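thread: overnight batch results

M.L. [08:02]
morning all. the overnight job finished for the chain we discussed friday. pasting input first so we're all looking at the same thing
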Amino acid sequence: MEFEFSTSDRIIFGNGTVERVGRLARDMGHRVFVVTGKTKARAVPVTRQLDQENIVFTVFNVSDEPTIAEAESAAGMARDFGGDLVIGIGGGSVMDTAKVIAAMLSNEGDLLDYLEIVGKGIPISKAPAPCIAIPTTAGTGSEVTRNAVLIVEDRQIKVSLRSPLLLPDIALVDPLLTRSMPPSVTAATGLDVITQLLEAFLCQTANPLTDGLCREGLVRAARSLHAAYTDGSRLDAREDMALASLFGGIALANSGLGAVHGIAAPLGGLIKAPHGAVCGRLLPIVLDANIRALESRTPQSPALKKINQLPTLMDSTLGSSSAELMVWVRDLCRSLNIPPLSSYGFRSDDIPTIVEAAKGASSMRGNPIALFDDELSAILEEAL
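M.L. [08:03]
and the structure it wrote out:
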């Protein structure tokens, strides 16, 4: 057995830890480029402290899921500002944008030079500018991943900037910041957490370190996602979900994902839908397809043994069968009111395009078994 493991240089976790960001920034830079979402108020926990430390800063608002053009514009603004530290506070899109900006502050050329699929795929050679990533959702784990997802508008696809150098210098995870998530966002981001943990656990390149993180993360997410959904003020549930998201991000960065994310990537370029909601809709269907494919084609697969471990991990009252796991996952997704893909404009006519694109997605390579075209088509038909 051989594997490597890496993550952010420093992880700070705990309620109220966002109050340390001013002191951290003071030691890392002098002109701070703050990235946040549509609402500038989201950045106040950071900007208030930068003011107190007399640190010069400016704020960039990410409108939605970032496009290549928006990321390039932001990087240009950061250069013109003379930024020497990037702080992203928000959801996955915000942190991804912050990581791109930090990389482009120190690497010459156009962003397209470094992108996979649509660009030249040139490796990032210089360490990005210092970056602090502060999640306000419990979902993507982007604060500890080595990629940043961008939309290519003219081709209706999502692509990634990838490099081990993209890992933020500091991942600062404060569960108190996630309390403002409404139920629908809690549900979508939470199912993204569970999907990432399950896929990183079952993927072909999992290792003992990532397995441990996934098991611990799944225990926490299974007991707390529905609680956080029904009562967002419950700090114990918010803390569990923030930890599960962190563990999922570390795990996927060191192992991989699977068919849910392989399908979700091209879907995200075609339809405007929350990434977590897409994952939540696909999760039980893909999991069922994987189980059936493994049982019929590779019944000795280690992934099947892991699948049979999952029910009691998620709920101690369950037994050790894939059927019980499927009932648990379907019941959870149903209780969180995840809508069908058709509600976002996805149509049957789009299925062949998505199947073809999904086969080439990087996440698909980690799936525990290669799914055939007809299996991928059936997944999408059911998800409609």
